[in-house]
TrEMBL record:
Domain N-acetyltransferase: 10-194
Molecular function, one GO term: acyltransferase activity, transferring groups other than amino-acyl groups
Protein name: N-acetyltransferase domain-containing protein
PROSITE patterns (alphabetical): GNAT (PS51186)
């Protein structure tokens, strides 16, 4: 059965024999020659009709998930995709009494990029898992960034690679994506699937059924499918907490790991390229959930900003800033970061958001730790006052203060009417001068692609804004490439088909300009809290490698290799 019939204009239903021809064309479009042909699809539907779900948009097949029942495949020493799926036909591999689900394929058309379709398809498998009381779900993932990573780190072993983390999340693009759905690596499978970029490796992933053997499975399935909040609670409970106590037999973790995981949700060490030291430094990112942005409370906030949802989520932490800070410090026990970068989803200098005692506590912490050279905080201009800055710089002593200000655009109409920033250029310049007077530096946020601009216009505007910011004394710039967070005006425009994030080709075009001019511009990450529903992307063929290349730029100041791809021809203006 299907659990969600329609969402975002996409309908879902079980595949039937009459869909086979269309599905084979779709598979070929997505996977090329390795896509399932009519014989395989037909055999899957005949063998296990309930395990084949398609997504349709305006009559076309745009997504397909197929699964089968198996026994505990984690006990097998190694197997290929071909072996575990009977070469994609499942007639010999599907075991009707099997206690586990195995994912045969999940395919999403590139036109659906950023529409969360893979999550929606996977939700059907999760629903099936709960309703049919299966023990868990297995899936074999590619690791398409492994070959590229190995080029730079020739001694890396694949077993170590799959454990690598960046910002607390798995480093591999697909592993990270599945990890966000709760599927965790069990082991490496060699010669799993012919895939050059993965060096033919696959990774067996596993998600346990949180309701195995529970009663009222129909109600639980309904809740799971229909109530996102219930799912979020389960994510937290079963993905972050329970595995550490239960020592899940398929994924091994420890209680110590749980504390680490909680610490990492507030505190992360990130490698970052320093324009001034011309090398990679370690930056300690501290997510301090304050009481939320006043601008958002008073006006509804900036059109792209969903941070209020993150600050609302952590209400219980607000009262315990110092306790949280001590927990967060676990992450830096064995490292010596050069800077602390505080994100609080609002204004650090607003006492209503971050208590003044904690502001001072943090200044003292930076001042008294030799290895810390700089404190970076964010604030709206109205809270940047002479009193605040003189207090901060006095306690910090010879340590540098940098203040991030959301400028977004040099154009008054775009900044105040489209982004709804409520900020004049005169005020921005006044605060830049004030900060400089006290020896502090300014980091300006520049937004790439506000609502209503084409990619081409967004490119032009971002370049003009960077030039303007540098001309008025800004020291560094962070380019925020638009991503869509639910519950924002931007998400409304996105759902109505009026907005998409910039393509990665546009981001690369801005990067080319930045590099040609040697501007001190960081490229902001493509994710945040809450998790975006759409991010800058190209087609699935080139996106993973471009993400990796941009990440390399963020970390090392060197842009990784950019693939050539047919999808660039649809962005001719960018060539
Ligand atoms: S972008 Fe900054 S100023 Fe705008 S609503 Fe979000 S936190 Fe507030
Ligand atoms: Zn492409």
């Amino acid at each position: 059965m299907v659990f969600i019939k329609k969402k975002n204009g996409i309908s879902f239903r079980l595949a039937t024999e009459t869909d086979v021809e269309k599905m084979a064309i779709f598979e070929k479009d997505v996977w090329g020659e390795t896509g399932a042909d009519e014989e395989k699809i037909s055999s899957r539907i005949k063998t296990f009709p309930g395990g084949n779900i398609i997504a349709l948009y305006q009559g076309d097949v745009v997504g397909y998930i197929s699964f089968e029942y198996v026994d505990n495949v984690a006990k097998m020493s190694n197997f290929s995709w071909s072996e575990i799926t009977d070469n994609g036909k499942i007639s010999q591999s599907h075991s009707p009494q099997g206690k586990y689900i195995y994912g045969v394929t999940i395919s999403v058309h590139r036109s659906m990029n950023g529409k969360n379709l893979s999550t929606l398809l996977m939700l059907h498998a999760w629903g099936h898992l709960i309703l049919n009381n299966k023990t868990g779900v297995f899936l074999g993932s590619r690791i398409p960034d492994f070959k590229n990573y190995k080029k730079w780190h020739p001694n890396i072993d694949v077993n170590d690679y799959i454990k690598l983390r960046r910002n607390g999340k798995l480093r591999g693009y697909e592993l990270r994506m599945y990890g966000e759905e709760g599927l965790l690596p069990v082991k490496v499978l060699s010669d799993y699937f012919p895939d050059e970029a993965s060096l033919n490796y696959g990774v067996l992933l596993y998600l346990e059924n949180p309701f195995y053997r529970w009663p009222f499975r129909r109600i639980l399935t309904w809740l799971f499918m229909k109530a996102p909040l219930f799912r979020k609670f389960l994510d937290w409970l079963f993905v972050s907490i329970v595995p550490y106590f239960t020592r899940n037999k398929n994924t091994t973790k420890t209680r110590k790991g749980m504390i680490k995981s909680i610490s990492e949700s507030y505190s992360v060490i990130k490698n970052k390229y320093s324009f001034w030291e011309k090398k990679t430094i370690q930056s300690w990112l501290l997510m301090l959930p304050g009481s939320g942005c006043e601008h958002h409370k008073k006006t509804g906030g900036c059109t792209m900003c969903g941070f209020h949802q993150a600050t609302d989520k952590y209400t219980h932490i607000r009262l315990f800033f110092k306790a949280m800070f001590l927990l967060a410090q676990r992450v830096v026990r064995n490292v010596r970061p050069q800077e602390i970068f505080v994100f609080n989803g609002g204004s650090f200098f607003n006492d209503k958001e971050i208590p003044v005692n904690f502001q001072k506590y943090l200044y003292r912490h930076v001042a008294s730790n030799n290895y810390l050279q700089r404190l970076v905080v964010e604030s709206r201009c109205e809270y940047i006052t002479a009193d605040k800055i003189s207090l901060a710089t006095k306690i910090l002593g010879n340590k540098k203060l940098m203040v991030g200000i959301g400028l977004e655009s040099q154009d008054d109409h775009i900044r105040n009417k489209i982004v709804c920033k409520s900020l004049t250029k005169a005020r921005f310049e006044e605060k830049v001068n004030l900060l400089k007077e006290y020896g502090a530096d300014v980091l300006a946020y520049v937004f790439l692609k506000p609502i209503g601009l084409t990619d081409e216009e967004a490119f032009e505007e971002a370049i003009k804004t960077i030039k303007y910011a540098l001309s008025v004394g800004v020291k560094e710039i962070a380019l925020s490439c638009a991503f869509v967070q639910e519950g924002t005006k931007m998400s409304q425009a996105y759902h109505e088909g009026r907005f998409t994030p910039p393509s990665l080709w546009t981001v690369l075009k801005v990067i080319a300009e930045i590099r040609a001019n040697n501007w001190p511009v960081h490229i902001g990450g493509f994710s945040d809290e809450p998790k975006p529903i759409a991010i800058p992307c190209n087609c699935p063929d080139c996106s993973p490698q471009i993400y990796e290349a941009i990440e390399q730029l963020r970390e090392k100041g060197i842009l990784g290799s950019i693939p050539t791809c047919n999808c660039l021809t649809t962005n001719k203006s960018l060539i």
